[in-house]
Structures are given as C-alpha cells and as structure tokens.
Amino acid sequence: MARLVAKPSLIGLRNDCRPGIRAARPQKVIVAIGGGEIRTRGTASIDRETIRLSNKKNPKLLFIPTASLDSERYCRRVQEYFVKFLKCRTDILLLIKEQPSKEQVRKKILSADIIYVGGGNTLQMMRVWRRLGVDKLIKAAYENGTVLSGISAGSICWFDSGHSDSMSFYNPRKWKYTNVPGLGLIRGIHCPHYNSKTRGIPRRKEFRDMIRKIGGIGIAIENNCAIEFIDGRFTRSSARRTTRALTRYTNVEARWLQNKYVSRNSSLPSRCWLVDSAPYN
Predict the structure, then answer these.
(1) Which of 147, 140, 167 is nearest to 11 (CA)?
(2) Is 96 exposed, middle or buried (0-12, 13-18, 19+ CB in 10 A)?
(3) According to the 3-state scheme, what is the secondary structure of 43-100?
(4) Could you report the per-residue pLDDT of 258-275, keeping only the tens digit for each?
(5) Taking the chain, what is the end-to-end CA distance rounded to the nearest angstrom?
(6) In the chain, what are the domains?
(7) CA proximity to 108, closest of 132, 87, 134, 88
(8) Cα separation of 1 and 109, whole Å?
(9) What is the pLDDT of residues 108-123, one digit of tens each?
(10) With b meaning 16 or more CB within 10 Å and e meaning fewer, what string describes 193-204?
(11) How far apart are CA 207 and CA 198, in angstroms?
C-alpha cells in the first residue's frame, strides 16, 4: 500500500526570530473535505476537529471564497456557521470583487489560525491565486503552523492536482472533467464528491478512467467525509459506521482491490479511496 505523504514547501517562517531563540517547529496540518453543506451542518464534526487542531478555543479563521467568485451568499453562510455556531473569529479574503493590496493579502493570510477555502471553480481559483501570489503566501502560512482546510475546490487545491468539474462553469452543456494543478502540498490526484455527480455525470467512473489513463495515485473522498494530514503524513480517516475501505485500483488486474484501513479513536467521518495506476502487491 502506497503511503500518502505531503510535500515539504520551500517557503517557511520562524515563530520567533529573536537572537538566541530557537523557534519550535510548528505542526503542519491539512484537513481535506470531500464535500458537504455547511448550511445543513453536514461537516460539523470535521470542522470541530479542524478547530481542535488549531490549538485555539476561538481561532481566527480566514475564509477564501475565490472559487465561488466571492459569492455574497456563501460568505454570509460561512459567517453564520463559523462565528455563531462554531465560535471562531472569522475574516474573509475577497480577491474577485475587491482588490486588496499585497500587504493586506499578506497580513490576512499570515495572521490566520485556520485557512478555510470554499468550493466552486478550481481552475479559476488557482489562476487567480498564482497571479496574485496567494499560492506562495498560503504555503508560507502552512509552514508556519496555520491549519489548512477546505471543501471541494478547497480540498483539491492542497494536492498535486485534482479531478475537477471546472469546465462545467464555462459550458454547462458540453464539458468534461479535467485534471487541475493544485499547490502540491500533498502528493497525488484528488477527487472530491466521489459518491456524487456533477450535472448528471458520475465522478466515480470518470475518476477511475482518469487514473488509468494518466497514471499515478488518486485519493478520492466522499461527501461529508475528510482525510487529515499532519506533518506530511496521512494520520486519520474514520467512519460513522464500523468499517470503511481505503481502496486501490490497478489497471493491470482491472478490478477493485480492497484493503481495510479503519483508524481508531477518531471523530472524523470519512470514506476515502486510494486509486492507483500501479500494480497492487
């Protein structure tokens, strides 16, 4: 079984830069969420875990809604959910409808305890981030101990790349799933919403076909489920029910091979699948 690992970033910040003071190495955390609706609190147990990982009772959470074109409705729901329900101190970074200065962007990102990225058009989001240098700032925050989390597009962005429905935003009648490059903090190709469809087209088969075609390792997560990565390693994947499977797909045997992998003592509901083009040994 291949081990899921996160890549080290080249950008880092010290917690304490005073002469003679050696800064403690911050814990690096990513919580990748496959999908869900905060409106119905479907990911509440996952988001509580994310807050716990920040080591703050009332952490400062920065919401980045770039993928939804800075949707006002989405921002209101996030404020209601994370402020009123989960008791976070919440800020929002608008990059589409506003033009904050480089210093404003830097301050918001590097001062956050948690960065939560919303869903939507992954391709557009990554283009905006790279153009404005947001990608580098998020990597710096990650190296300095800021907890990274997000849903759908906000989950894809942490991986090398992701199985995305971004093209459906441009032509809803004629589109295909595409592989969109992410920040590369976690190795592999990620598929969110693994148990659902976009405009009637199932994710599961399309993702398996993509992995068989381009190779590599795919990590798929179902709705209202998550995988937790701490210090570059897959550490937690649990289930509401008693068993779940971490699964690998091989184009050599052309069938699903299951390897039970159920973490203990975990509060995260998860159903994840490892989809691999390499032979299963």
Answers:
(1) 140
(2) middle
(3) CHHHHHHHHHHCCCCCCEEEEECHHHCCCHHHHHHHHHHHHHHCCCEEEECCCCCCCC
(4) 333 233 334 444 455 555
(5) 8
(6) 29-276 (3.40.50.880)
(7) 134
(8) 36
(9) 999 999 999 999 999 9
(10) bbbeebeeeebb
(11) 12
Rounded to whole angstroms, how far apart are CA atoms 210 and 190? Answer: 11
pLDDT score for 23 = 53
DSSP 123-180: HHHHHHHHHHTHHHHHHHHHHTTPEEEEETHHHHTTEEEEEE-GGGGT-TTS---EEE
Q: Mapping DSSP to helix (H, G, I), strand (E, B) and coil, where does residue 104 land?
A: helix
Model confidence pLDDT, tens digit, residues 226-248: 888 998 777 765 433 322 333 33
